[in-house]
Amino acid sequence: MDPFFYNTIEQPAVAEFKDRGSKFLAYSFPVLSIEACKKQLANLKKEHPKAVHHCLAYRIGVDGATFRVSDDGEPSGSAGRPILGQIDSKQLTNIMVVVVRYFGGTLLGVPGLINAYKTTTSLALQLSPIIQKAVEVNYVLNFDYQQMNEVMMIVKQYNCSVVEQVAQLFVELKIGIPKHRLEEVIHKIQDLQGVSYKTALLV
To answer: On the chain, which terminus has fewer CB atoms closer than 10 Å, C or N?
Structure first.
């Protein structure tokens, strides 16, 4: 995996696949946390209460280390793994795919199920524009409110993202600095009088 960039999707997508009466609907979502995954799954279960299965896979984190697969009652390895396989084939992270199945009366067998979950996921991922994002390192900056413009110029110039901002007389600004520009940004911040900075752990 590239230490400076990762691939993810920008917006949700839905795709449909039918096989011998069974209908499969794949929903792909950009996600940043396990909580977000739980929320999306709960919403889909409300939206499709009559579906027999809600199978899923997700991969989260710039290192892709957090992942989960669920067959949700389908034979072991026939749903969640094929879904994750499609996510991994495109080297994506911060993504979740849920495939909702309506049973059509005919058993598809394990090879049929693997094909259905794989195909539906693949169709959804074809509809989700893939974007490349910079791996960011989080920092907290503290400075006087009057220095806001100078600081924001650096933030914009180096495509840093603003995670959180608390502004009173003094400003506390939590930013994500693209890893491949980290040294340059820190040098620029050091050049500003009265701006303190430290690395921040995101909870």
So the answer is: C
